[in-house]
Amino acid sequence: MTTPGFRVLLKMHIHSGMEDEFEQAWRSVGAAVTEHPANLGHWLMRSTSEDSVYYISSDWVDERRFREFEESWEHGEHRALLHPYRESATISTMHVVGHLLKSAGEAR
């Protein structure tokens, strides 16, 4: 498996009581991210320690291709559909410098 070159992590506070609708909306617009040729994966995670907090992580071939996507109309539509659920959000971007996987024989 190739190490992804660039990772994006969003932390989103969702309006209380709108969590289920947010999750459905994220799934319905996820193709805007995963169908981009430079995207390597897209994950939605719900915090176990903070109410109504989600993390969205996506891996990209490189920063330049992510930035092109970030400025695209597809991304604008994606954001517009999720915006009504969002109380606040922060973004962190990072270059992946390494990753380790379990050996093929180990249990997962």
Q: Tell me the overall shape.
A: globular
Number of domains: 1
State the separation between the terminal residues, measured CA to CA. Answer: 16 Å
CATH class: Alpha Beta
Radius of gyration, in Å, reads: 15 Å
Return the CATH architecture: 2-Layer Sandwich
How is the main sheet built?
4 strands, antiparallel
Strand order of the largest sheet: 2-3-1-4
Low-confidence region ranges: none
Range of helix content: 25-40%
Give the total of beta strands.
4
* Number of helical regions: 4
Computed structural class: alpha+beta
Question: Would you list the SSEs in sequence order as H and E?
Answer: EHHEEHHE
Topology-level CATH name: Alpha-Beta Plaits
**β-sheet strand percentage:** 25-35%
Overall average pLDDT: 91
Protein name: Antibiotic biosynthesis monooxygenase
InterPro entries: ABM_dom, Dimeric_a/b-barrel
Domain ABM: 6-94
GO molecular function, one term: monooxygenase activity
